[in-house]
Design brief:
Layout: E1 2-7, E2 12-15, E3 19-23, E4 27-33, E5 40-46, E6 50-56
Antiparallel strand pairs: 1-2, 1-6, 3-4, 4-5
Amino acid sequence: MELIIFTNNGQTYHYSGVTDFQPTTTGFSFTYVGKATGVTHQAVFNNTSTAGYAIVPTESVE
């Protein structure tokens, strides 16, 4: 899936290939693969720094 995060200071972050998206008591976490490096990362965002997020499911090709 794709994940777009909007921060309180006006920044927008876009992640592709997101897996394991989990709401937490203080925000949310997810796993993604870096486009430039191909390395898997774990990211954690706090609710106090985010204005919101959008989740776009990835269509499966059959």
